[in-house]
């Protein structure tokens, strides 16, 4: 079993980091410099549609921004890990360490009008969708400055174009179809990316969402973040069919190397164009990997080997992968990247301190937002008849 | 209920969904998050059990969990409770279950005015609202006032209505049971037994316990009536709230509940008769309650 796993890993590694065949740069001003990469042809596999183009055209600024975003995201998750171990974060905490390329690549292909919804591994997406680092960390700490006022926690973070942050496995997928429905109804030229994991992929409601999205040509892109393990169960032990990009049956799909931020970006741009062209939904499967356990309660080593984790870290890391590309094709210097790393660390460290300094939510907020303020109910009961709150 | 709506409003607004409650309810909730004002119909509330996670965990709780950042102005509606001869899986009343959820409003119309005013209020309400109709009431006709026929007629959610004033005992009911309670009250008045005050709850959540308290202070006796199961039901909740309120001191007899039987609904008609309360059962219980006195 292990040797065949190693072969699979080797394939993924080969896909991620074979040098692009050509890089063309334009010798105009450094800021406007366009870089052209050609992705390895194992970056994509298609089902009932064409593969996205392997030709990536991107500015230096965008590349540097993507690197920066991934580094900050990694730092946020590392900080969360430490805070959880210090018992400052309670309850659930699902980290996306290793999966950064998905959120960053996706964001670089979308606009603010597009919407995203995912499950509980949401800190990275919250950041990419406009959540400040302080508001994310403060939410984890249960403080007033938290993005949900401290009332949601790790799994319930939202921004105007990001619908969480959802705790019930699979429930976010029909919700995502609904958001896409609203976009179509309101004639917004935008799409919704609804994400779920390999663990959620077998949920009935996912297929119910597929069906309605296809029937009604909703501008929905369903994205399976396949990190190979649904909690502690390997995908092959949970799914009779692990070709998640084909599970949409009548919905075309693309499997993507989710450890390569440029491949993710390319696939998401392709999917967005598909959905906006009125072709209905598309399915993307992002092959990705988390270094940590399912959550902070899970060491992540009882159902997979430390070797496997180490192998992925050493050979497939999305940040290292982009770094190698940028250096090899002289898009930036090593010093510039080091400066970004240092700045990211400082930014997150400062945010940790600011989040820690934020007070707990005021007791009054215990009672707020059960109903909309302008259409509330007269009173709510606390733990006993005399603990009553009148609105 | 949706007859003629497709012709009136068109296929963009009136949508036939596949029979996939979990999916279409989630889709409706998601569309509400994203700015629409959907009315999500369940063919009966029994099937909403497939979707109850979306109603409770997505619709009801999200405004709170997001610290007020996400809105869910959705209306869920459909027939609830007993029909006729549809047996156990199709006859359950869900008032108590949804009524216990903070974040939801729950209404239960009895007559035509209720149905219109409460549904319109539900749709206009920016919170998620559960509207529990009753299939057997769909075919019944009621007079509508001029006001009730107007375009903007809404009934305030959370306010009960005194359908019949009385002095000797209070009967509180919701949905179809209101009709039976009124029949029982008229029967008992005609027979000279008592003048019963009949309250139509209209809303399950928020529960208008103030109207009930005011009535009990006047009549000193209370009987609740519902079609749902007895344990942990609407009547149980009313009893508990009365106990905890000043109305307790005004009771001359214990509060009594009239409910559906604690049984999965049987099919055979003679058995089904025992599953749900009617005029005769209510009259019997009211009479018995009148003959009780605390401490006597």
Automatic annotation (TrEMBL), chain A:
Keyword field contains Oxidoreductase: yes
Sorted UniProt keywords: Oxidoreductase, Pyruvate, Thiamine pyrophosphate
Reported cofactor(s): thiamine diphosphate
Cross-referenced SUPFAM superfamilies: Thiamin diphosphate-binding fold (THDP-binding)
Gene Ontology BP term (one): pyruvate decarboxylation to acetyl-CoA
EC number: 1.2.4.1
Catalytic activity: N(6)-[(R)-lipoyl]-L-lysyl-[protein] + pyruvate + H(+) = N(6)-[(R)-S(8)-acetyldihydrolipoyl]-L-lysyl-[protein] + CO2
GO MF annotations in UniProt: pyruvate dehydrogenase (acetyl-transferring) activity
Domain Dehydrogenase E1 component: 69-363
Top EC class for this record: oxidoreductase
Record carries keyword Oxidoreductase: yes
Protein's job: The pyruvate dehydrogenase complex catalyzes the overall conversion of pyruvate to acetyl-CoA and CO(2).
PANTHER family (UniProt xref): PYRUVATE DEHYDROGENASE E1 COMPONENT SUBUNIT ALPHA, PYRUVATE DEHYDROGENASE E1 COMPONENT, ALPHA SUBUNIT BACTERIAL AND ORGANELLAR
Identification of the protein by name: Pyruvate dehydrogenase E1 component subunit alpha
Gene it is expressed from: PDA1_1
From TrEMBL, chain B:
CDD domains: TPP_PYR_E1-PDHc-beta_like (cd07036)
Annotated GO biological process: pyruvate decarboxylation to acetyl-CoA
Domain of life from the UniProt record: Eukaryota
Location of the Transketolase-like pyrimidine-binding domain: 1-140
Cofactor: thiamine diphosphate
Keyword match DNA damage: no
Catalytic activity: N(6)-[(R)-lipoyl]-L-lysyl-[protein] + pyruvate + H(+) = N(6)-[(R)-S(8)-acetyldihydrolipoyl]-L-lysyl-[protein] + CO2
Record-linked InterPro entries: PDHB_mito-type, THDP-binding, Transketo_C/PFOR_II, Transketolase-like_Pyr-bd, Transketolase_C
Keywords: Oxidoreductase, Pyruvate, Thiamine pyrophosphate
Coiled-coil features, chain-numbered ranges: none
EC nos: 1.2.4.1
Keyword Metal-binding: no
GO MF annotations, alphabetized: pyruvate dehydrogenase (acetyl-transferring) activity
NCBIfam families cross-referenced by the UniProt entry: PRK09212.1, PRK11892.1
Function recorded in the entry: The pyruvate dehydrogenase complex catalyzes the overall conversion of pyruvate to acetyl-CoA and CO2.
Protein name stated in the entry: Pyruvate dehydrogenase E1 component subunit beta
Taxonomic source organism: Entomortierella chlamydospora
Gene giving rise to this polypeptide: PDB1
């Amino acid at each position: 079993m292990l040797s065949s796993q190693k072969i699979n890993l080797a394939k993924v590694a080969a896909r991620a980091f074979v040098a692009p065949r050509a890089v063309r740069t334009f010798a105009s001003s450094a800021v406007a410099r366009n870089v052209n990469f050609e992705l390895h042809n194992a970056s994509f596999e298609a089902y009932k549609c064409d593969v996205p183009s392997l030709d990536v055209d991107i500015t230096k600024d965008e590349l540097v921004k993507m690197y920066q975003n991934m580094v900050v995201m990694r730092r946020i998750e590392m900080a969360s890990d430490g805070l959880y171990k210090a018992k400052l974060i309670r309850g659930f905490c699902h980290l996306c360490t290793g999966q950064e390329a998905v959120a960053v690549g996706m964001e670089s292909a979308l606009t603010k009008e597009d919407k995203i919804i995912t499950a509980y591994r949401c800190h990275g997406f919250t950041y990419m969708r406009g959540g400040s680092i302080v508001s994310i960390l403060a939410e984890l700490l249960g403080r007033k400055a938290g993005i949900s006022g401290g009332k949601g926690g790790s799994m319930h973070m939202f921004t105007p174009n990001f619908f969480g942050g959802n705790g019930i496995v699979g429930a976010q997928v029909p919700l995502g179809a609904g958001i896409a429905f609203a976009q179509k109804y309101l004639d917004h030229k935008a799409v919704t990316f609804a994400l779920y994991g390999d663990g959620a992929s077998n949920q009935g409601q996912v297929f119910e969402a597929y069906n309605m999205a296809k029937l009604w040509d909703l501008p929905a892109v369903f994205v399976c973040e396949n990190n190979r393990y649904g909690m502690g169960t390997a995908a092959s032990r949970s799914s009779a069919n692990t070709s998640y990009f084909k599970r949409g049956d009548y919905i075309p799909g693309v499997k993507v190397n989710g450890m390569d931020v440029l491949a993710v970006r390319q696939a998401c741009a392709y999917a967005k164009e598909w959905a906006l062209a009125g072709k209905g939904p598309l399915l993307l499967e992002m092959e990705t990997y988390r270094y940590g356990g399912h959550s902070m309660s899970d060491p992540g080593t009882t159902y997979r080997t430390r070797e496997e984790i180490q192998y992925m870290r050493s050979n497939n890391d999305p940040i290292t992968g982009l770094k190698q590309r940028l250096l090899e094709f002289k898009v930036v210097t090593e010093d510039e990247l080091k400066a970004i790393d240092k700045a990211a660390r400082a930014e997150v460290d400062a945010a940790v301190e600011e989040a820690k300094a934020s007070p707990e939510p005021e007791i009054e907020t215990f009672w707020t937002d059960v109903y909309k303020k302008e259409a509330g109910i007269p009173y709510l009961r606390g733990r006993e008849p005399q603990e009553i709150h009148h609105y | 209920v949706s007859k003629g709506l497709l012709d009136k409003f068109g296929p963009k607004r009136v949508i036939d969904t596949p029979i996939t409650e979990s999916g279409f309810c989630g889709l409706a909730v998601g569309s509400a998050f994203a700015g629409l004002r959907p009315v999500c119909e369940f063919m009966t509330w029994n099937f909403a059990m497939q979707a109850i996670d979306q109603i409770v965990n997505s619709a009801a709780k999200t405004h709170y969990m997001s610290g007020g950042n996400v809105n869910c102005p959705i209306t869920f509606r459909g027939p609830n409770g007993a029909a006729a001869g549809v047996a156990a899986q199709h006859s359950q009343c869900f008032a108590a279950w949804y009524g216990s959820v903070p974040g939801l409003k729950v209404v239960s119309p009895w007559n035509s005015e209720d149905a219109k005013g409460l549904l319109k209020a539900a749709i206009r309400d920016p919170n998620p609202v559960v509207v529990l109709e009753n299939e057997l009431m769909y075919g019944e006709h009621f007079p509508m006032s001029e006001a009730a026929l107007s375009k903007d007629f809404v009934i305030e959610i959370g306010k009960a209505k005194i359908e019949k004033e009385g002095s000797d005992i209070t009967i509180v009911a919701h949905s179809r049971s209101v009709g039976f309670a009124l029949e029982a009250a008229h029967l008992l008045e005609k027979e000279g037994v008592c003048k019963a005050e009949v309250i139509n709850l209209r809303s399950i959540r928020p529960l208008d316990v103030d109207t009930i308290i005011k009535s009990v202070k006047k009549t000193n006796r209370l009987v609740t009536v519902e079609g749902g199961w007895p344990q942990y039901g609407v009547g149980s909740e009313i009893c508990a709230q009365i106990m905890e309120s000043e109305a307790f001191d005004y009771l001359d007899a214990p509060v009594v509940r009239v409910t559906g039987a604690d049984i999965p609904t049987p099919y055979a008609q003679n058995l089904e008769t025992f599953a749900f309360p009617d005029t005769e059962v209510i009259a019997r219980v009211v009479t018995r309650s009148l003959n009780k006195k605390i401490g006597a």
